[in-house]
Design goal:
alpha+beta, 5-stranded antiparallel β-sheet, about 40% strand, globular
């Protein structure tokens, strides 16, 4: 499955919103996907290409006084886009991983 298909599944089946990921020059450098979860958590996926992505599940509790520190705790992983997002997608019947 290519990245476009994975992104569409994350949007359609996973409830993610798709936004551009900006680089330090203001140009689009990749994709940023987010979803809010019941219980006060936030899933964030950022991908620069098929080879590199990062995922975090964090408490939805940024402190406006220190916005760049981020909340404590959470789940984090990084690696190839398809591997990073695979656990976030619903299982498909008939597919063995």
């Amino acid at each position: 499955m290519d990245s476009a298909e994975l992104i569409e599944r994350l949007r359609r089946e996973g409830g993610f919103r798709l936004l551009p990921l900006l680089g330090n020059t203001g140009q689009v450098a990749g994709v940023h996907l987010t979803r809010f979860l019941p219980g006060g958590h936030l899933d964030v996926v950022q991908a620069w290409d098929e080879r590199w992505a990062a995922y975090a599940r964090l408490p939805n509790a940024l402190d406006p006084a220190t916005p760049f520190l981020g909340p404590e705790g959470g789940t984090i992983r990084s690696g190839p886009f398809s591997r990073v997002v695979a656990p976030l997608l619903p299982l498909q019947s008939g597919i063995v991983g």
